[in-house]
Amino acid sequence: MGQGGAAVRALVPCSRGGAGAADTTSAVFGAFQGQTAGHGYFPTGKLHRVEPVLRAKLAPGTLDVLRVSNMIAKLAKTCTLRIRPDKLNFILADKVASGGVSMWCELEQENFFSEFQMEGVSAENNEIYLELTSENLSRALKTAQNARALKIKLTNKHFPCLTVSIELLSVSSSSRIVTHDIPVKVIPRKLWKDLQEPAVPDSDVSIYLPVLKTMKSVVEKMRNISNHLIIEANLNGDLNLKIETEVVCVTTHFKDLGNPPLASENASQARNPEQMAEVHVDIRKLLQFLAGQQVNPTKAVCNIVRNKIVHFDLLHEDVSLQYFIPALS
Amino acid sequence: MLKCGMSGSQVKAPFFFSIVFGKAIQALSRVSDELWLDPSEKGLALRSVNSCRSAYGCVLFSPVFFQHYQWSTSVKMNDSDTISNLNCKLGMKSILPIFKCLNSLERNVENCKIFTRSDNCKVVIQFFCRHGIKRTHNVCFQESQPLQVIFEKSMCSNILMIQPRVLAEAVFLFTSNQEEVTLAVTPQNVCIKSSNEESMDSTSSVYSEMFVGPDEFDFFQIGVDTEITFCFKELKGMLIFSEATHAPISIHFDFPGKPMALSIDDMLLEANFILATLADEPSRASSPQSLCLSQKRTRSDLIRSNSKTGKNVTSKALEHISRKAAPKRLMTPNETLTNISALESCGSPKMKRANGDTSEVPESSVSGTEEVPESPSLRKVKEKR
Questions:
Q1: Where in the sequence is the domain holding B224, given as residue range(s)?
Q2: Based on the domain organization, do B113 and B188 belong to the same domain?
Q3: Where is the signal peptide (chain B) (predicted)?
């Protein structure tokens, strides 16, 4: 299987701040060669000669991308990868299929790439949206753990693919080249509006989360009792996780967690800090979210909108993750 | 009758004998659900053939592998008065759990004894563990003559020898539900990749490939540039075993359609996994028979079992047949259908489509007819007396 299309393989040296010779791990988002007119991967049906282009070199720290892709693979089976000049996003929109859960993960492009060049569908719409199976990407990147060089290209073989090209160091002098072609779906522009950054809701209570590992083990045990979980918190640093059935009631209390500073002065005066705001959620959705957090984040905030939605806002070093779980109706 | 013993673990020995034996069984379990125990003067052979007859595994442990190896034939009182071997077929379900927890075997077992008595159709496996504990397993066996594939490895044009670690890294690339992989070789490099067919059909599976240079191989001989496709599951089975023995794996193969062999040759044992490969059928639009097969592939058939009843002969005459696009070439006038076992590849559904229009060769077990006459393809016959 050769590389499809007349791929422009040359690396344009548009490095930022000097990618030095010591760049041992480098990845290149190569050119995405669009199809000849009429091939129809742009489902709008128009004859497009516009070819989105993406060229980037990953800074040493390819492992971070691997960690992010592992996390995404645990959080969402299928997700959308949105590529913009300054940011990359992994998106799960709140469709019925995901049970109303939505996710927004953001990476600053310059923290991961030493070279990055892309061209979207058009000048005004300088973005690329790809839908892919998350696990395919994380598996492909797993091979790159000891890579000497890593190239990622958008190609079109028989269908659009994200081609991950890895050069591995081997015991002998020759290096081994590994290639993975991950099938992707290019999302047409008319669907982009559903994939925008969700608005952060006006929360009733905002609280810092406890150590996620502890929270996860508590929730795992509760899951055996009931699927209906009540999350409640107040502005005094108290967070409770409650399960109520006919037979038993189990509550885990977390205290002295701390609350992030409130946005407005008026709000803090009006609310009684002891008053709890609660939301009822499906415990399995919370468990899936917690399962995706392999390491404890740099920052973790939980925002509750009474009886509506719970919003988790995490920061893993330089990757931000927002996860929304709707309340049970 | 068979009696042999292995030491469980010897700290100084490079091998942990029971472990290797257990790993052999685990590897063979990937081939099929049945295991033949076939002792002879050459040693104890463990054999397994899958139901489609597209994969065969045999691990032969030489007598020096065992602390004590005793094998004798019992003379059966029957009309022909011939020597009969132990025709012992075990279910994998019975024997695999015994050798499953190899880590605990390593820690606890000091000695292992395996013996049989053909009069009561049982194989007895005894573990002599620490603290004086003795664990005995009685496994019933079925009387069944083992199948054997004779494959002239040395006649293959392409021979590669590689450390199992490198192959394991290649295998790591693929997901566990990958059915088939393709090995493509040229004198410059070797590429292991996802089978083309799968990635073309499905838009959701990842296509992966890895190029390995010639200097990573212990032995590299490429006589003909070729691409062969075979079943991934069986390759993984072989890999499990090779990791236990730390010996390099030899790969012998030729053109697509001809079986390939994965082997390990060591002082103490010899392992051979013979796998069928997909035969490449070029599309010939003009020929009506091949139309339905155009761009489809057929799997070459590996083993024919040909036994003679009437004589209690343990050997099987084995041949391999390539199923060609024109089915009528498969049958020469002298061949009788009843003599040939059906060699359908029943794994991949694509194969079933391909076989749709060929004349089906019916399944048959033992027949009393003579040996099959010449078939158009390569044929090796060997009889063991």
A1: 154-198+206-280
A2: no
A3: none
Q: Does B209 reach chain A within 8 Å, measured CB to CB?
A: yes
Q: Is the pLDDT of residue B8 over 70?
A: no
* CA of residue B274 relative to chain centroid, distance: 5
| pLDDT at residue A171 in the model | 66
State the Cα angle at B280 between B276 and B284, rounded to 5°.
145
Residue B36 lies in a domain: yes
Does one domain contain both B180 and B252? yes
For residue B312, what pLDDT is reported? 28
Tokens representing B257 are 């359609």
Q: Are residues B62 and B164 in the same domain?
A: no
Do B168 and B211 fall within a single domain? Answer: yes
* R_g of chain B computed on alpha carbons: 22
ipTM: 0.70
Q: Do domains A53-194 and A202-261+273-326 have the same CATH topology?
A: yes
pLDDT in tens, B348-358: 333 333 333 33
Res B6 pLDDT > 50: yes
B142 vs A64: CA distance, rounded Å: 56
For residues B159 and B67, state if they share a domain: no
B7, B114 contact by CB (below 8 A): no
Question: Regarding beta strands B55-61 and B278-279, do their DSSP bridges make them parallel or antiparallel, or are they unpaired?
Answer: unpaired
Q: Please say which residue of B224, B256, B280 terminates a domain.
A: B280
Residues of A in contact with B206 (CB under 8 A): 136, 139-140, 180-183
- The CATH number given to whatever domain includes residue B26 is 3.70.10.10
B280, B303, B329 — which closes off a domain? B280
pTM for this one? 0.69
A202-261+273-326: CATH number: 3.70.10.10
- Reading the block at residue A139, the tokens are 């598996």
Residues of B in contact with A183 (CB under 8 A): 203-206
The hierarchical CATH code for the domain A53-194 is 3.70.10.10
| Residue A78 sits at the chain B interface (C-beta within 8 Å) | no
B96-105 pLDDT per residue, tens = 898 888 777 7
Instruction: Select the more confidently predicted residue: A315 or B203.
Output: A315
Using CA atoms, how far apart are residues B124 and B122, in angstroms rounded to an integer?
6
Cβ distance B206 to A159 less than 8 Å, yes or no, reads no
Q: A-chain residues within 8 Å CB-CB of B201?
A: none
Give a yes or no: residue B326 inside a domain: no
Each domain of chain A, given as residue ranges in start order, spans 53-194, 202-261+273-326
H/E stretch holding B298 reads strand B298-299
B173 Cβ under 8 Å from any chain A Cβ: yes
Query: Quick one: A37 exposed, middle or buried, by C-beta within 10 A (0-12, 13-18, 19+)?
Result: exposed
The number of distinct structural domains making up chain B is 2
Residue B369 lies in a domain: no
> Using an 8 Å Cβ cutoff, are B233 and B240 in contact?
no
- Other beta carbons within 10 angstroms of residue A134's beta carbon come to 21
Residue A287 touches partner B, C-beta closer than 8 Å: no
A174 CB within 8 Å of a chain B CB = yes
The residue type at A293: Q
CB contact under 8 A, B199 and A174: no
The pLDDT profile of chain A, 329 residues, written as one tens digit per residue, is 333 333 323 333 333 333 333 333 333 333 333 333 333 333 343 444 345 666 666 655 556 778 888 999 999 889 999 988 888 899 998 776 667 889 999 988 877 777 777 887 777 788 889 999 999 988 888 877 777 777 778 887 778 888 888 887 766 666 788 888 888 888 888 888 888 888 888 889 999 999 999 999 999 999 999 999 999 999 999 999 999 999 999 999 999 999 998 765 555 556 688 889 999 999 999 999 999 888 888 899 999 999 999 999 999 888 899 999 999 87
Contact B193 A1 (CB under 8 A): yes
B200, B207, B212 ranked by CB distance to A176: nearest: B212
B363 at A interface, C-beta within 8 A: no
**Is there a single domain that holds both residue B169 and residue B139?**
no
